[in-house]
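call fold(seq) -> tokens
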Amino acid sequence: MTNHEQSDRGTQSQMLEIAIEEARQGLSEGGIPIGAAIFDRHGNLLGRGHNRRIQENDPSIHGETDAFRRAGRQRTYRDKIMVTTLAPCWYCSGLVRQFGIPTVIVGESTNFRGGIDWLRENGVEVIDLNSAECIKLLADYIRANPAVWNEDIGVE
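ret:
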């Protein structure tokens, strides 16, 4: 790994830490531990959020959509970075495509692969950090709450 790649990995990990903080917050509220954040290309935080489906009784509040809403209106999204603890579902992948977000940093895709292959096929750079912390956080939740998890991903 080059020094530049190591620097990028360090910055990506710092960005992911904000999403992990959001995931932990969601879990402490009794929700699904998935967090996200949106940054500009310089690494400035624009918005952060977490899955609030349970807390707000609103199936549309995923971690990515919460962070997106909290970032507020942007002139363009073509220079933004979406960071999420879990590979985005089809709904959140659609949000990335709809607004032209070019880069998605994923904490993990082991528990759920979501739409990352589709995003890649359509020119989105997806960086999977394969975070052991993210994997364990969600796996523990899924084990303890399989019905809620299946509802979240649309499986009956």
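Helices lie at 3-28, 53-56, 63-71, 90-98, 116-121, 132-144, 146-153.
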